[in-house]
Amino acid sequence: MSSRYHAHDYFSGLLERKLGFSYSIDDILGSVRMFETKFNTFLTVESEYRISASLLISFNQLKNKNDVDIQTVTQDSSFNSLDFVGQLIVFVAKKINNLGALNSERIGQIEQFIFNQSHYPQVEHVNDFDFYCTVSHFLTLIGIDLGIDLQNDELLIDLLVSHLKSLINWDSDSFNANIAGPLGPQVKLIRQATTRSLNVIENFLHRPLSDSMVSSIVIHIAAAVLRNENKKTPSRIAIVCPGSRAMSEYLQEQIKNYFNFYVACSIQKNDFNFNDLETQHLDFVVTTVDLPQLTVPSVKVSPMLTISDINNIQAIAFKIQHDSKQNRKDNDALIQLVSPIVKSGNIRKMEIIYNQTVRLLKEFENSEYQTAMSSEILKIMPMQFIRIESRSLSWKDGIKAGFTDLVENNLVGPSYVDHAIDNVEKYGPYIIINRGIALPHAESKDDVLEDCLSLLISQKGIEFDNNERVFLLFCFAQNSDIEYLRLFKEIMSLGNRQTEINRLIKSQTSEQAQRILIEMLTNYKNK
Question: Are the C-beta atoms of 383 and 457 separated by less than 8 Å?
Fold first, then answer.
């Protein structure tokens, strides 16, 4: 009955009217979910529905019983002394303005009623650190699927964490992800990728996500994609549509309607030399005919775009990292730039270059020093806690090796390492927070003597059960109540610098690795 009754529909409304209920299932269920959000707790769906139904009956029976002294249950000290179900009862009563009918005896009676119905709550306590790891891993998988970076968008992560913790009204919200226009094709791809990785979130929350929840997540991700695309230079494309000029122009208008592309040229002639496309600095080509093999990617479409065509265009656009290509510098570019001046023997120019280079190097050194002093990572991770591993390791052996220095220095005990491994076995590889980066940890403080962090650099990579490979394993343990979300975000940000991660992986000593890590974390200002 409880599973049928949880929704606000005709059946529940009729039942409430026939029984003369003053409170509705919406009142109770909404309050229960507010309790879950406030205390970072999740009930299984079945427990949530059954307990809400029991509370509905109990509170409607107590509606007119305002004859007791309620001070004993409203004071924080008394509230904190209650067990989980007792705290839930008081919280819900307060939200529906029915505290006047409660005292310690009646709280016990309601608890007993819940237990008599075999409604033992299956409770999951979570913390923000775990939430951030899970959401980051979720976005990493979607990003890999789409060929874009989502996990580095801090705003998106913050929004999704907040949204997922606030499950109060999601069942009644009506989200529609069927968006037309330029965002439409992206939304469809995003929804497909989101659905494929949805189990990461559902396993963590121990509850399935409704269509409304999924649509809301898709809208958040699509908005982030659009926000980031607006900051980029539009993809530069060519359109090849030999034959009718009208058809070529029509295809171009269709593309402009759906995508934010810069059309460098539109080719309508059959005798066009396609090798000339190589000189156009294109990101890719949209064509209605088969093309000879080019170095530029291409996608073949119909002159009248179909949904499949739109998806294929968007898929190739997603995979074009335009900014990284545009800003990539050749390693020898500086030498090539300065070499002619040196060879010319122009002393004045060389002196200016020398003085400016010395000035910049001093600024770099000062920036790196400030980073070493202020970095959340380096505050709790001394150089001796950086370990370089050249052997192939399983993910379990990798976690054990990563915590070795912390265990040997009596900062954590062996049981904490076991808890960290148990978490991965329970939730999956949610600790992978960015490409190639994982953050194993456990919530338990029982075997942690001091806040600490270590880094295992695996030169061959550590493979998890889903074929995800990790090269940097940051092993974290926390004993204090200090908020470490800034540490989490700093570790996650390292994924923005894949080229420098490759340098870090090739480190031969802990000292060299620490130096590269400082450089990766430093924000060099280009003046």
Answer: no
Give the whole-angstrom CA distance, residue 287 versus residue 312: 12
CATH number at residue 393: 3.40.930.10
C-alpha span between 185 and 258 (Å, rounded): 8
In sequence order, what DSSP letters do the residues of 429-452 get, joined into one string?
A: STTEEETTEE----S--TTB-S-E
Rounded distance, CA 24 to CA 1, Å? 15
| Structure token pair of residue 160 | 């999704």
Q: Residue 301 and residue 240: Cα distance in Å, rounded?
A: 10
Which of 71, 91, 125 is where one domain is finished?
A: 125
Domain check: are 21 and 112 in the same one? yes
Give the DSSP letter of residue 184. H
Six-digit token string for 1: 């009955």
Whether residue 366 is found in the same domain as residue 379 = no
Q: Is residue 526 part of a domain?
A: no
Same domain, 140 and 211: yes
If DSSP codes are grouped into helix, strand and coil, which group holds residue 435? coil
Residue 299 and residue 281 share a domain: yes
Q: Is the pTM of this model over 0.90?
A: no
Report how far Cα 221 is from the mean position of its chain's Cα atoms: 10
Is-catalytic flag, 119?
A: no
My answer on whether 217 and 248 are in the same domain is no
Give me the catalytic one of 6, 119, 137, 441: 441
Q: How many domains does one find in the chain?
A: 5
Do 22 and 118 share a domain, yes or no? Answer: yes
- Do 262 and 287 reside in the same domain of the chain? yes
| 290: in domain | yes
> Is the C-alpha dihedral spanning 503, 504, 508, 513 positive or negative?
positive
Closest CA to 255 of 270, 234, 272, 232: 234
Q: What is the pLDDT along the chain (527 residues), one digit of tens a residue?
A: 444 444 455 556 666 666 677 788 778 888 888 887 777 676 767 777 778 888 888 887 776 554 444 444 444 445 566 677 788 888 888 888 766 667 777 787 887 777 776 555 555 666 778 889 999 999 999 988 887 888 888 888 888 887 787 654 444 444 444 444 445 667 888 899 999 999 999 888 877 888 878 888 888 888 788 777 666 677 888 898 887 788 888 898 888 877 778 888 888 766 666 666 666 778 888 999 888 777 788 899 998 888 778 878 877 877 665 444 444 455 566 787 888 888 888 899 999 999 999 999 999 999 999 999 999 999 999 999 999 999 889 999 999 999 999 999 999 999 999 999 999 998 889 999 998 999 999 977 778 999 999 999 999 999 998 788 999 999 999 988 777 888 998 998 898 788 889 999 999 999 999 999 999 999 887 55
Do 177 and 185 contact (CB within 8 A), yes or no? no
Question: Is residue 441 a part of any domain in this protein?
Answer: yes
| Rounded Cα gap, residues 25 and 16, in angstroms | 9
Helix (H, G, I), strand (E, B) or coil at 11: helix
